[in-house]
Amino acid sequence: MNPFQYSRPAxxxxxxQSALKEPHAQFLAGGTNLVDLMKMGVVQPERLVDINxxxxxxxxxxxxxxxxxxxxxxxxxxxxALVLESxxxxxLAINAGASPQLRNxxxxxxxxxxxxxxNYFFDTAMPCNKRTPxxxxxxxxxxxxxxxxxxxxxxxxxxxxxDMSVALAALDAVVHVAGPRGERKIQIADFHRLPGDHPExxxxxxxxxxxxxxxxxxxxxxxxxxxxxxxxxxRSSYAFALVSVAAALEINGGTITGARLAMGGxxxxxxxxxxxxxxxxxxxxxxxxxxxxxxxxxxDAKAYRYNQFKLTMxxxxxxxxxxxxxx
Amino acid sequence: MPTRSPQDAGKPDTTSGEGxxxxxxxxxxxxxxxxxxxxxxxxxxxxxxxRKWDEKIADALEQVTVNLEVNGxxxxxxxxxxxxxxxxxxxxxxxxxxxxGCDRGQCGACTVHVNGKRINSCLSxxxxxxxxxxxxxxxxxxxxxxxxxxxxxxxxDGFQCGYCTSxxxxxxxxxxxxxxxxxxxxxxxxxxxxxxxxxxYSNIVKAIxxxxxxxx
Lengths: 327, 216
Description:
- The structure holds two protein chains of two kinds.
- Chain A is α+β, with helices and mostly antiparallel strands.
- Chain A has helices at residues 12-20, 34-39, 74-78, 81-86, 88-95, 100-105, 108-112, 119-122, 164-170, 188-191, 274-280, 287-297, 310-326, and strands at 5-7, 25-28, 47-50, 59-62, 65-69, 174-179, 182-187, 210-216, 226-232, 243-252, 255-264, 271-272.
- Chain A has 13 helices and twelve strands.
- In chain A, a hairpin with a 2-residue loop joins strand 10 and strand 11.
- The longest helix of chain A is centred in the C-terminal third of the chain and has 17 residues, at 310-326.
- The relative contact order of chain A is 0.13.
- By secondary structure, chain B is of the alpha+beta class.
- In chain B, 36% of the residues lie in helices and 12% in strands.
- Chain B has helices at residues 25-40, 43-50, 55-60, 85-92, 148-155, 165-178, 184-190, 201-211; strands at 64-70, 73-79, 111-114, 117-120, 133-135.
- Chain B has a five-stranded mixed sheet with strand order 2-1-5-3-4, covered by helices on one side.
- Chain B starts with 24 loop residues before the first helix and ends in a 5-residue tail after the last helix.
- Chain A binds chain B through residues 1-6, 8, 28, 31-32, 35-36, 39-40, 46, 48, 50, 52-53, 75, 98-102, 104-105, 237-238, and chain B through 37, 40-42, 45, 56-57, 59-62, 64, 81-82, 84, 103-105, 108, 111, 117-120, 123-125, 127-128, 130, 171, 174-175, 178, 180, 188-190, 192-194.
């Protein structure tokens, strides 16, 4: 691991100032991803700003919604009564990820910052435009079994590996950040980005900006009755998603009155299915309609040499998630 | 590889120090770690060091003081901020019960409790544990009286080689406290962060099912 300066500020403003002192400073929260990446030499920050002492923990009601402090751990969120009551999809998604030990360490803010698990990103002997811009993409013509179906570029076909983020995308979460120019809100759909010509940028945060909270809006609290998170992986627990589906439906008398759908493991960001949601709205909940919805969701999918199987797995996962959610 | 008897505990390890003049294997490793650290230091930092240790490099190699409690004993240690909690326990406090398996948060052999919650100590920088209470496998027993989970692992043969066992037991104790033992499936799911390459899983589940009703 490269040597780094360690700082432990007591306030958010101090943390931001400390991070601005070095061009490659990083905030450290749970460390489950960052410490691993530092051990592998994939990232080499000159300064670590330990934000763990900052007062950014806790979950509270905000009108019809919830505010989750950025330093709340994954397990604190997944087990919280208010989350289980109004946003069970979030609990399901969090508990589908990592292990109990890691969920006790990983934070909501840190989880949003999780880097890809692409093997070429982790292997410093291989080319990777995300790790070393301009070095090429090893996965494009390499072993790309875990890689993207949607929104990739010829620079990068890696996927965002998260589960929590997929649920947050379906639930229209809002990310609150503080930075050198004050605070701002970022819709979850605008937080992560597609690779384009700059795969080194996972998200739209600016230098020195720190996630301080995540809001769940009241508008998606009504989806708690018909909800499911389906994760398909190489073993039944403790593995990254090949494909995952977050599904939340509002159903009245057999008719779908609202739908929220997002996929994980298929794109550089949580992949929200707006068109499919619009198709489902107003239709009767049935296997046939769900199959049509799944086909629609796959319309722009593009597979690579080793992830062709995802073209079958992904629509099947959508169909199954909708069936389970509607039951 | 020569083995050490329990009577040798605490004595310098000279059994595997061949070819290292005037030092043990462990000393050699420590020295070479310092050399590696210097080798890994960026050239700009070395230039800075040349100019009477400018603030940047001094900071980078600075030892940080951390206060923490391990198995009820308070410790104040000065460490390189790169040291993980696992390495602090094993290399600085001589608590070698917590094992280093993958060192990447994938196997669970390093599981300890921090303020009562199970975590992977290999992914926790020691300096981030200021003021925390750590419990390791060494802190479970009361003298010769084993913890009920330890007894259950022995009774049910919950291990073969034993390398993952301390992590399995620390995870299992936390699992019972978390109330995740209703079914065999639930135990398996919430023990999935602990890998056993010998495949003692079924006996581990039996041990947990027995111990879950005893006071932990």
